[in-house]
Amino acid sequence: MAQIDAFFKLMNEQGASDLHMVSGQQPILRIRGDMERVKYKTLENDTLKAMLYEIVSEDKVKQFEETGDVDFGYEIPGLARYRGNLFQQKYGIGSVFREIPSDILTCEQLKLPSIIKKLSGLPKGMVLVTGPTGSGKSTTLAAIVDEANKTRADHILTIEDPIEFVHKSQKAIVNHREVGLHTESFSAALRGALREDPDIILVGEMRDLETIALAMEAAMTGHLVFGTLHTLNAAKTVDRIIEIFPTSQQAQVRSTLADALKAVVSQTLFKRIDVKGRCAALEILICTPAVRNLIREGKTYQIPSAMQTGKKFGMQTLDDAIMDHLQNNRISPEDAYSNCIEKGKFVQFLKKPPSDFTDA
Q1: Which of 81, 197, 271, 298 could form a disulfide with 100 if both were Cys (CB 3.0 to 4.6 A apart)?
Q2: pLDDT, tens digit, for every residue of 315-345?
Q3: 97 and 149 together in one domain
Q4: Is the distance from CB of 162 to CB of 185 less than 8 angstroms?
């Protein structure tokens, strides 16, 4: 048993999402979105380094010492998996761990809209789950892939950095590949994937032009591709993909994306005020023929209006999802206001004027 495992067990007992271990500070847990210090001595650099190096492979240690940061995965059998990051900071080594539960929650358990579950049955195309770091993208994707694993006799291939949720083959065959361990990069793994007979490909993060281009190519050649982006809503997701390409290619990319994209799910996590825990507000864009035309013609600014009129297809805006949580007393007016798009709809629920002067 590694020395640091005691902190992971504490993290699990407290229901924390993240553990921060940084030289010069006490350990810190993020619980329901808030940072809480652990009653423990201040961590010294050499002591913490020894503790962390005990669970990191030699290759990852070498990469960290050469570059100053590295991602890796760690697992405690019977407890959970952890996505870890080591980084160098002013006072020495630092680390952050995100807990990845061993049990994969279903779409029903997560109370996701019914259209999300249906995405697992698409024959081909690209589905993107987006949102800021820590918004639950991986959990939502895991639920969708789990549904496909249970219901489809297909080959599912995941490419992640590091591997997060582990799916055991059920009706489908599932293979997991980790960037840096099983493959050189996301783009290298995607190039290889096209020769590995996959039906469904999960790309943990679409970081660069080559990865995005290969993912669209895979979606256009009969594969169902799931991926994530760090964007805040559906319209910005479409813009981000197009804008990463050179100007001379953007017209062609718009056309390709319009054909390849099936859905965008953008989510934001909120602290609940009615019970302990958090809930997600989801913006859902389904690529109907009308939406495809907006993408093709470069009119992404009209996508929010298309979502308003496309509710019968399962679409919803982020503001509508936030309003539903607010009216059902699941979240606070302050949280709703700070995360919504159209501030004017929510300012009436505030007891005090907005504290953010940039929203005035």
Answers
A1: 81
A2: 999 999 999 999 999 999 999 999 999 998 9
A3: no
A4: no
